[in-house]
Amino acid sequence: MSKLAVSITNAKNNTDLCTLGFVVANASVASGVETVVFLNSEGAYLAEQGYADDIHEEGFAPIKQLIDSFVEAGGTIWVCSPCFKKRGLDDGKLIEGAKIVGGATLVEFLTNGAACITY
Q: How far apart are CA 23 and CA 15, in angstroms?
């Protein structure tokens, strides 16, 4: 089975890129590819409930809908632990399907044959 990691480093600082990351992730998981979204840097904000509710890049589905669709299709969301902590986010308010992980988790996924793209 093919594997893809989509690293999303943006949130409200660049709604176009965070939206595109989830569009690609949705296409990947819908194609039967084992897909992980890795939220890091500013992208870590997307893991907190309510943060993404008002992000809607023109021409695309709202980011909350893209996130929900990705999880419902079987996609995995990992959140960079240091990035999450640095931003003072509340792990009690994680979005459904998100899991806080260290970098070693992503490295293991990548060394087991996953490709990676960054948005």
A: 12
Strands (E), 24-113: 34-39, 76-80, 98-101
Torsion of CA 86, 91, 97, 100, to 10 degrees: 50
- Residue count (the chain): 119
Q: pTM surpassing 0.90?
A: yes
Q: What angle do CA 9, 84, 5 make, to 5 degrees?
A: 40
88 near 79, Cβ under 8 Å? no
Could you read off the pLDDT of 52-88 as tens digits, one per residue? 999 999 999 999 999 999 999 999 999 999 999 999 9
Q: CA 112, CA 2: separation in Å to the nearest integer?
A: 10
Q: In what side-by-side order are the strands of the sheet with 115-118?
A: 98-101, 76-80, 34-39, 3-8, 115-118
Phi, psi of 20 (to 5 degrees): -60, -35
> Which residues, at least 6 apart from 107, have a Cβ–Cβ distance to it below 8 Å?
none
